[in-house]
Structure formats: structure tokens, C-alpha cells
Amino acid sequence: MIFVHISEFKIFTSGFSELRITIFIIFIKNIMKVFFYISLTILFLGCKKAETDNQKPFITILKPANHANISLGHNLLYEIELKDDFQLVECRIKIQSATIPMNKNIESNLWDTTFVKSISGIEAYIKDQLLVPSIIDSGRYLFMVYCKDKTGNEEFTARDFKVITAITK
């Protein structure tokens, strides 16, 4: 029969507890390393690099119709749809003569105006009207729309219309 002295048993159990604590600490350190590497992986692979926007906005002029006749002193109605995949910022509308005067000595009174509308979001709808001055020269004019997005991409489109002295039917 083997007898174990109580003092030896205490040493054995205290050594066993220290071994368990050491193993537990090593286990916790390894788990922390695993979480650290998983976190780094998620950080670098999970976060996408900011996408670059090189897509120009899309412009649809609903009104005025191309080749429309507008009378002097009447309203020019316009409707515009704007779309972008990122962020719209600005819409600039310009009206100017579509013809170039051949004789610079003849005084002309051509309509030339520009105005800016602030917009935001990925879609915008603009519906408004503009009084055609009664003192301008009749003739062909351009209704031009420029649209810019947040990254500076710009697109434009135009419609041709005719300013006349009176609408004839």
C-alpha cells in the first residue's frame, strides 16, 4: 500500500492548478490573436475603397418639344428629368440664339440668358416656365440644359425652338 502525505498532495494539486491556469492563459492569448487577425481581415477586405464616379448625369428634356414655336411675350414651359448614379448638384439652363448674325453692323436683340438651379439626390425633376421677352428678335433659339454631379462630371443636351411674332394655326 502506498501512502501519500497530505503536504505532498497539496503541492500536487497546487501544481495542477497552476498548470491549468497556464493553459487557460495560453488559450486566451491564442483566442485574442485569432480575433485580432479576423478583425484585420474584416477591416481590409470588408471595407471597400471609395468608388470613383466617372458616369455623367443623364438629362431628359420633356418640354419644350424640339422645333416648338413660342410666341413673343408668352411663357416658355419646360420640364426636365435629371438622374445620376452618385449625387446631383447643379442644373444650369441656358437660352441663346441658334443663328449667328452675318452682318455685325446690324443691331440685333437676341435672347441670351442663363440661370442655375440647385439640386440634390440621384434624381431631380424641374418644371417651370420662363417669359419670352417681347423685345427680342424672332428666330431659332436653343434651350440648353447642363447638369453636374458631386464629383464634377457634367453633361448637356439641347432643344431647338423658334420664337415667332404670333402663333399661326
Q: What is the mean pLDDT?
A: 83
Our count of helices gives 1
Order of helices and strands: HEEEEEEEE
User: What is the β-strand count?
Assistant: 8
CA-based shape: rod-shaped
Oligomer: single chain
Distance between the termini: 128 Å
Structural class: alpha+beta
Uncertain stretches: 1-12
Q: Any idea what the radius of gyration is? A: 38 Å
Strands of the largest sheet, in order across it?
Answer: 2-8-7-4-5
Which range does the strand content fall in? Answer: 35-45%
- How much helix, percentage-wise, in residues? 10-25%
For the biggest sheet, the summary is: 5 strands, mixed
What does this structure look like?
By secondary structure, this protein is α+β, with helices and mostly antiparallel strands. 24% of the residues lie in helices and 39% in strands. It has 1 helix and 8 strands, in the order H-E-E-E-E-E-E-E-E. The protein has one helix at 6-46, and strands at residues 58-63, 68-71, 75-83, 88-97, 113-118, 123-131, 139-149, 154-164. It has a 5-stranded mixed sheet with strand order 2-8-7-4-5, with no helix packed on it. Strands 1-3-6 form a 3-stranded antiparallel sheet, with no helix packed on it. Strand 7 (139-149) and strand 8 form a beta hairpin. The longest helix is centred in the first third of the chain and has 41 residues, at 6-46.
